[in-house]
Amino acid sequence: MSAFGSTRRDFLTSLAAGAVVSTTQAAENVTRFVRFKKGSTTAHGILDGQEIREIQGDLFGKFRETASRHRLSDVKLLFPVQAATVFALAGNYRSHLGTRPPAAHPEIFYKPITSLQHPGDAIVIPRDATNVHFEGELVVVVGKRASRLSVDEARDAIFGVTCGNDVSEREWQNGAAKDVQWWRAKGADTFGPLGPAIARGLDYSKLNLQTRLNGKVMQKDSTSMLVHDCPTALSFISQFVTLMPGDLIYTGTPGTTARMSPGDAVEVEIEGIGVLRNTIAAARA
Q1: pLDDT tens-digit profile of 143-160?
Q2: Is the distance from CB of 179 to CB of 185 less than 8 angstroms?
Q3: Is 40 exposed, middle or buried (0-12, 13-18, 19+ CB in 10 A)?
């Protein structure tokens, strides 16, 4: 059963589509957007329980609902937005820093858009990788062009939030095989699972976050414990790099992480958003 209140029936139905969507926070004020594929059609929609109301138009501008309705169990959920740029934060929870002091400003790195992976699909461990870890994270979805914004202006530029997993190969990141940049340690194909839905209207400053490996809780924290909150991170990035609608900011992981192996299943659940579930597979020889 979902840790934040989904029924077992809804949990099992949603797992068939690779996701569970939670509605803990004020459901009437929250809209959940998904991107999905059904047959040859790929579209965005509004998730309403176990039904998707298809929309047409610009997700970040003008769109309208169509007459098309789809059962969640009949579609394939995709990562919910096609980003141009993916940013991520390092060391942004006190529980992850341990004895290290927090950084004075957000520590930013890039993940390639090719690292994004769909809900329900496999995280593939590359050949020669030996120590691949999960990192459950809240992810910001940018809703408008953002350049040199104040923190208050950045708050208004956030379209919504979703779940992410900043998968990391620790040997390539920090071990004996350490690279100069984290280009493969955090950017290998499938190392950025995202979804299942973008929640718009949540108070993302105080959401419960939980990561489970094979059903065991491995990370548990609140987004209220971020060192640099979502508007601060967006504002800081925008001083140097212009963000565009659909761009993503992975905001950092709490607590400790652990190695994943082929055959494992990892779930990132954030209150009011849902569960991002992925299996682990080995690269083909």
Answers
A1: 999 999 999 999 999 999
A2: yes
A3: exposed
d(CA 83, CA 105): 24
Supply 30's token pair.
């929250």
pLDDT at position 6 is 43
- C-alpha span between 46 and 54 (Å, rounded): 6
Q: Which of 113, 110, 115, 112 is nearest to 89 (CA)?
A: 110
User: Cβ(208)–Cβ(222) under 8 Å?
Assistant: yes
Of 19-28, 86-95, 155-164, where does mean pLDDT reach its minimum? 19-28
Instruction: Tell me which of 198 and 16 has the higher pLDDT.
Output: 198
The predicted-structure confidence for 35-47, as pLDDT tens digits, reads as follows 999 999 999 999 9
Domains of the chain: 8-16+81-282 (3.90.850.10)
Global pTM reads 0.91
Q: What single letter denotes the amino acid at residue 131?
A: N
On whether the CB atoms of residues 66 and 56 are closer than 8 A, the answer is: yes
Q: Dmax of the chain from CA atoms? A: 56
Give the number of other Cβ atoms within 10 Å of residue 212's Cβ: 20
Cβ-count burial 256-274 (b if 16+ within 10 Å, e if not):
ebeebeeebebbbbbbbbb
How far is C-alpha 36 from the geometric centre of its chain's CA atoms?
16
Three-state DSSP at 47 gives strand
Q: Which CA distances in Å does 247 have to 68, 133, 134, 139, 239?
A: 28, 24, 22, 10, 15
Do the Cβ atoms of 110 and 240 come closer than 8 Å? Answer: no
Q: State mean pLDDT over 230-238.
A: 98
Q: Copy the structure tokens of residue 198.
A: 């973008």
Yes or no: say if 224 and 209 are a contact pair by the CB < 8 Å rule: no
